[in-house]
Amino acid sequence: MQADAKAVHNRLRRIEGQVRGVQRMVDEDAYCVDVLTQIAAVQTALEQVAVHVLDAHVRGCVAGAVSEDGDQAAEKLDELMAAVRRFAKVR
Amino acid sequence: MQADAKAVHNRLRRIEGQVRGVQRMVDEDAYCVDVLTQIAAVQTALEQVAVHVLDAHVRGCVAGAVSEDGDQAAEKLDELMAAVRRFAKVR
Amino acid sequence: MQADAKAVHNRLRRIEGQVRGVQRMVDEDAYCVDVLTQIAAVQTALEQVAVHVLDAHVRGCVAGAVSEDGDQAAEKLDELMAAVRRFAKVR
Amino acid sequence: MQADAKAVHNRLRRIEGQVRGVQRMVDEDAYCVDVLTQIAAVQTALEQVAVHVLDAHVRGCVAGAVSEDGDQAAEKLDELMAAVRRFAKVR
Predict the structure, then answer these.
(1) How do residues C13-37 score in pLDDT, each as one tens digit?
(2) Cα(B70)–Cα(D36) distance, integer angstroms
(3) Which residue from A minimizes the CA distance to D53?
(4) Cα separation of D84 and C18, whole Å?
(5) Angle at CA C88, nearest 5°, toward B85 and B80?
(6) Reduced to 3 states, what is the DSSP secondary structure of residue A58?
(7) Alpha-carbon span C41 to A44, nearest angstrom
(8) pTM value?
(9) Which of A46, A48, A61, A80 to mutate against chain D (most D CBs within 10 Å)?
(10) What tens digit of pLDDT does each residue of B61-82 get?
(11) Measured by CB atoms within 10 angstroms of the end CB, which terminus of chain B is less buried, N or C?
(12) Helix runs in chain A, H state only
């Protein structure tokens, strides 16, 4: 992930700003539906970061472990599937 | 929503702090899977705020419009269903 | 819902056929990714039916209860929010 | 996947039966909220099948391609991430 840690950091800063924007909307008593629309935008941005991190993880860590040795590979694949499950909200 | 705007604001502040925490993890080159777990926690917290706001909106605005007049009611119900659709990510 | 029960029924029949199609793919040892794509199509179709039923319910039952009396209204709104929560997979 | 194609097939048959059950509920004019609960159960069952297929795919196909050669590996990882994205409904 190293390579694009800076890009991920910047995206998260933008998300932090979006969350503050929602706070302001709530403080200024904005219309509920507008608040919900804004929260949905933050959720989309967060998902995109998560997929980005997952992508880097799969191509880096997981692929590395799989091509190198058997033991670590199984563990990495378990971890990966647990992350995917959590992500897709499958129990 | 007025009544619990303060509670929503506080939850959003906590979420803002969580997002900053994820930034720190990325800066300190934390393990990808731990970053993903943390992002998932932020997503859960955001969803809970969204449902809370939706709940207040349905019981306040929507129920109010429905019990008072026909015209506004249809509009509010359209808005509500659009929010639910976006929320459940149904196209 | 009565009015469009037939439409919902027909959509569900199509979904039943899609599920049978996925079974056939599995039997014929289709490529996993194609099976996943097909399952995703069924999920989308199911979601659309669910939103359709929810929409009819909100505009019929819920709006009716809200505009008529207070007691039933609260119960209907609780039920509605529980359905939305389940739908959006929010705990 | 071969190994558990039979298990996947059986789960899909059960899902087909569940879909038919929902049709019957609609025909018998069941309460909307009960229909929604039943549709949610079908969705959960479908997701579990999808995760099962994805799991087998990752441990079989993807891990195989990664440990064997570079070219196929990149393609398999692209496919995998596309499936995860679709699954988690991330655009």
Answers:
(1) 999 999 999 999 999 999 999 999 9
(2) 27
(3) A81
(4) 21
(5) 35
(6) helix
(7) 21
(8) 0.90
(9) A80
(10) 888 888 887 678 888 899 999 9
(11) C
(12) 5-27, 32-57, 63-68, 70-87
